[in-house]
Request: fold
Amino acid sequence: RRGLDHYLQKALDKIDELGLYIVSVDMDGLKYINDNFGHAEGDFAIRELSIYLRSTQNDRVGCARIGGDEFLIVVLGNEEDTKKICKYLRRKVSRFNMLKRKKYELSFSMGYEQYNPEDGILTCISKADEKMYEEKLMDEEGMTMTPNKLIYIGHPLEFDENKFISDLSVLMKAAYDQDPDIKRMVADVVNTYTPE
Reply:
């Protein structure tokens, strides 16, 4: 965290030249991983995510872990630069899930905000946090959730049923588009896969 503070101060000194964005990153479903696969596995998941975050660092990007599963990225650049970093992280985590084939899905939520000198850095971080928590509930297209995100928001499912989660995630998006037929399909999926 001390390194991030130092980088942040350097970035603020150059903000007139390049602009500054704060990215708030929070791992999804850590409690679910700890409860179902053990704290060692939870620590492993955090380390993997940390590695991907650190790999974004250069002379214009700094990052640090600020809590158990919370991270901040400081981007000295414009919104396009920030989006590229976000897309890079998603690709890395997607590849991890494809290759490692864990019984859980490594995932994270993020939100970013442009620094405004009139508001101050703490307000910028707070706004980035707000956007990150919004993403905890829905993806860019709206309401497509990962298994860990469903657990995070208190979904009643307590069993590890990957097919159920996969089917339900796809159908929920369409259901929220107000299609009565899809809503009936969601009910059918729940009836089919809910354990007795």
